[in-house]
Design a protein that fits this description.
Function: Responsible for synthesis of pseudouridine from uracil.
GO biological process, one term: enzyme-directed rRNA pseudouridine synthesis
Helix content: 10-25%
CATH superfamily of one domain: RNA-binding S4 domain
Keywords: Isomerase, RNA-binding
CATH class of one domain: Alpha Beta
Radius of gyration: 24 Å
Strand content: 25-35%
Family: Belongs to the pseudouridine synthase RluA family.
Enzyme class: isomerase
CATH topology of one domain: Structural Genomics Hypothetical 15.5 Kd Protein In mrcA-pckA Intergenic Region, Chain A
Low-confidence stretches: 1-27, 329-341, 434-469
Distance between the termini: 54 Å
């Protein structure tokens, strides 16, 4: 999909013909931003989305496609937009009943309202001629996608740096995840860093805030991870999945506060492999999901056990999970990444935003109140990256949610990764795909790795026979 601002004339080349989409002039481009109440706001602006006909669109009426695939606006809105010429096919006006054909270019110009993001600055941990190491704030997406364009790491950095600066992110962080990121100043530098990460010559450590009392000592989870639905982009532990390993070590445990049912733990996490949502899935399987995870700690989706120790799907079948997610607003034809962002957006909107009763004077879109800062984050933070040969290391401070509660004594800094690396080495060679198990330390057992025969029970990783010592 290609998107362009209203302020320009964009031309597209397609087989056997030239297509042009013409949109009116925007007075100010890029749109101005305002910092207010701890949030970064982008003034609403006009934007044109351009998408070539997808296979599933062939032979369907234009209005039917918009009704089924773009459900953030009403059917009447789309009909009015088509009549007004805000929806074009191959640069020309068509009616709602137009039947879309292979090769058609569908353009939709709309008044775009980007959600506000935190106004926390993008911290710079290190900078040289090739690379910038940043501390990404939570709630800010890296790339333009979905409802976000200018409230993204890339566009914020471009706006803050003159002379046509173009950032090239080297490692991925989800929108809600904060922490250490590498942003290259050139394509060559980005490719070089990406190769190091892929070849596992770079170690990385995260910190998470999880439900309950995570066991003391080292926990090495080797459970394989399977994508149970490509359309959903959802993953869970499955024996038939891809090899995955994460090393965990508890940093602190805090008892329940007044009015709270459960205490929580701050856990260090070293992913050895790089599966999608790997840390979140492994923590869920171990019975200690990230405390505010809208997906993997959601009882509406997983039931009361939250997928704990359910490697076979006997407790919660994949079909049931998919069905529950579908009822939360997923469109059957939506693509995985777009739907995941949409689903999190809708979840946040239900929890954090309320209709103000007002509507935009330009497009009549209902206006929402601002989300609270606590709704703009996932309690998972990229804490440290280091070269395996010890040539460099970059670390960020602990996020506020990982610090001890007021009046409670606890760790405020984290040491190096030597203990995690040693635990991973003692765990031995990674199992082949489909042969995973859990390696863990018994509580107060001095951190000795132990193989667990079968899944952990009652949300606690139990110790078993010693692991090759």
């Amino acid at each position: 999909m290609f998107a362009g601002p209203r302020s320009s004339l964009r031309s597209f080349m397609a087989p056997a013909r030239r297509l042009a989409t013409i949109t009116p002039v925007q007075e100010v481009w890029p749109p101005p931003t305002v910092i207010d109440d701890g949030l970064r706001r982008v003034q609403p602006y006009h934007w044109t989305y351009n998408t070539y006909c997808k296979e599933r669109w062939r032979g369907r009426q234009l209005i039917e496609i918009f009704e089924s695939e773009f459900r953030d606006r009403s059917l009447d809105y789309y009909r009015d937009s088509m009549e007004a010429g805000d929806v074009l096919v191959n640069g020309k006006r068509v009616g709602p009943e137009y039947v879309v054909r292979n090769g058609d270019l569908v353009s939709h110009t709309l008044h775009r309202h980007e959600p506000p993001v935190t106004a926390d600055p993008i911290g710079v941990l290190h900078e040289d001629d090739d690379m910038i190491v940043i501390n990404k704030p939570s709630g800010v997406p890296v790339h333009p996608a979905g409802r976000y364009k200018f409230n993204t790491v890339i566009e914020i950095m471009r706006a803050e740096r003159p002379d046509g600066f173009m950032p090239y992110p080297c490692n991925r962080l989800d929108r809600l995840t904060s922490g250490v990121m590498f942003v290259a100043k050139s394509v060559a530098a980005a490719e070089a860093m990406a190769r190091k990460i892929k070849q596992r010559t770079v170690r990385k450590e995260y910190v998470a805030r999880v439900v309950g009392e995570f066991p003391a000592g080292d926990v090495v989870c080797d459970q394989p991870i399977l994508q149970i639905s490509p359309k959903l982009g959802l993953n869970r532990v499955r024996a038939s999945g891809k090899t995955a390993r994460t090393v965990f070590r508890r940093l602190a445990h805090y008892e329940p506060r007044p009015g709270c049912r459960h205490g929580y733990s701050i856990v260090r996490c070293m992913p050895v492999t790089g599966r999608t949502h790997q840390i979140r899935v492994h923590l869920q399987f171990l019975g200690h999901p990230i405390q505010n995870d809208p997906i993997y700690a959601n009882e509406r989706v997983w039931g009361r056990t939250l997928g704990r120790a359910d490697a076979s799907g006997e407790e919660t079948a994949d079909e049931d999970v998919i069905s529950r997610l579908s009822r939360m607003g997923k469109d059957e034809a939506a693509e995985a990444v777009a739907w995941y962002d949409q689903m999190v957006d809708e979840y946040e909107k239900r929890r954090a935003e309320k209709l103000t009763g007002e509507a935009c004077s330009v497009c009549m879109t209902p206006l929402y109140s601002d989300p609270g800062p606590h709704e703009l984050s996932l309690w998972l933070h990229s804490l440290r990256y280091e070269d395996a040969d010890g040539r460099w290391a970059y670390a960020s401070p602990l996020p506020v949610w990982a610090l001890p509660p007021e009046g409670v004594v606890g760790p405020t800094v984290v040491g190096g990764m030597d203990e995690l690396v040693e635990a991973e080495a003692e765990a031995g060679t990674l199992p082949e795909d489909g042969d995973g198990d859990v390696l863990a330390a018994g509580a107060e057992a001095g951190g000795r790795n132990a193989t667990v025969d079968g899944p952990p029970r009652e949300g606690v990783v139990l110790s078993g026979s010693e692991s090759g010592r």
